[in-house]
Amino acid sequence: MNQPLAGYAPAPVTARMENHGNHMLKVAMQTGHDLFARVGSMVAYEGFVQYEPNPSAVRQIAKDWLTGEGAPLMKCSGDGLLYLADYGANVVVINLNGEGISVNATNLLAFDAHLTWGVERVKGLAKFAGQGLWNTKISGQGWVALTSRGKPIVVDCGGGEDETYVDPDALVAWSPNLKVKGKRSFRAQSLIGRGSGEAYQMAFSGQGIVVVQPSEDSTDRLRVRG
């Protein structure tokens, strides 16, 4: 191999899911260990890997999503190496050891098919967003890959009395055992242009983490269900 290109070759497999650089996910596929991944996220694969878009297991759960909301998923199965990406977004790999994670569906790249998952209402926000916001909760023993528009920060809420406040347009994921509530504020700068000047944040408290991306693209965030 050309010496300058050799540095981009994949490293030997050491885990089910691994980063290849900051913007690509490498998955070691094995028969009987299926994967759910975002439709269109496959960029390359080695070996024999098959894809089933919108499988029945996904349709049953995703029926709770509004049209155009959530993450269209495909089932991946087979043997080999699978590479996934999402338009150059940073990839964050999490190995769940019996815990859970609540994920903004648009930040969900892939997860082991045997994990327990579903769409759940985000409690404590109904009065701020009509009937509330919805997220995807994943739990069990296995691997999950998230995306972030830029390098994220992982905030440890610490279990103290102080709350952690996050702009929902920048929220990626959080520990589902955290308490969540909304806080409404008034921002004078929002009066410029079409803004109303009113905004709200999500307040987290308890023992757990919050993953925040350096982006406030409101077209890409938690969806409001009316």
UniProtKB/TrEMBL annotation:
Coiled coil: none
Top-level taxon of the source organism: Bacteria
Pfam families per record: AIM24
Name of the protein in its database record: AIM24 family protein
